[in-house]
Design a protein that fits this description.
With 230 residues, the protein is α+β, with helices and mostly antiparallel strands. It contains 5 helices and 13 strands. Strands 5, 6, 9, 10, 11, 12 and 13 form a 7-stranded antiparallel β-sheet that branches. Strands 1-2-8-7 form a 4-stranded antiparallel β-sheet. A hairpin with a 5-residue loop joins strand 7 and strand 8 (146-148). Helix 2 crosses helix 5. It is globular, with a radius of gyration of 26 Å.
Length: 230
């Protein structure tokens, strides 16, 4: 009886192995097809062609609720400060999304303007904390993985009167232009600015995506501070 049971077990294992080997090519085919679908990037006549080959930042298949969280993480996890001869500049994470016609595009195509919001924490004039808003075009970086912004000319700002609350900005060798707005700066220019949020403006200005200061810290783990001496 035991011998018969052992033979049945061996036969069962053999059949399972044969079925597994037969199904393996089909499984590989399905996996390859799925990966190709995720990697496939659309190019439209009206929209900019997207040539990135990775899909970890591809949010085109996210549901509306998933998108609300996913875009914030993607923007913040790649955030950094770049030093330039004109001053520090922020770099953000880029992501892919669907446009109104359902095609896959870079986020900058749908949201062409970005506000970077900073506060001079620890300083207050008449009870108001100074605020700096850096409004720039949403520009896809050369690596197609990041959003490049414009440098902040702190050396020029610190030499200007505090009554000047608006400054034009541009990068060397670039036609892109932006503006910096200051609020609640009275007696002196703060030299440290904490990043407290980012706001993307859509083609329709009422269409916005926003990230607040709590979300910035929750992803970065600590405040991101720009120093005027950089």
């Amino acid at each position: 009886m035991k011998k018969e049971k052992t033979n049945l077990q061996k036969m069962s294992r053999m059949i399972s192995l044969v079925l597994l080997m037969a199904a393996l090519p089909f499984g590989v085919l399905l996996l390859n097809k799925k990966v190709n679908q995720l990697r496939g990037v659309a190019s439209t006549e009206e929209g900019a062609a997207v040539t990135a080959t990775t899909f970890d930042y591809d949010l085109t298949e996210a549901s509306p609720e998933q998108f609300k969280k996913a875009f914030k993480y993607q923007v913040l996890k790649e955030a950094s400060v770049i030093s330039t001869s004109q001053g520090p500049a922020m770099r953000l994470g880029l992501f892919l999304m669907k446009n109104d016609s359902g095609s896959k595009v870079f986020a900058c195509e749908q949201y062409p303007t970005v506000d970077l919001i900073f506060a001079a924490e620890g300083i207050a004039f008449s009870g108001e904390i100074p605020q700096m808003i850096v409004r720039v075009p949403c520009t896809v970086a050369a690596d197609q993985r990041h959003i490049d912004t414009l440098p902040i000319p702190f050396s020029k700002i610190l030499k200007s009167p505090t009554s000047q609350y608006e400054f034009p900005i541009a990068a060397e060798g670039s036609r892109e232009e932006g503006k910096i707005f200051f609020r609640h700066v009275v007696e002196f220019w703060p030299t440290e600015w904490t990043w407290t949020g980012v706001k993307f403006y859509g083609i329709n200005p009422e269409d916005t995506l926003q990230i607040n200061g709590y979300e910035v810290i929750s992803v970065l783990g600590e405040p991101l501070i720009l120093k005027a001496s950089e």
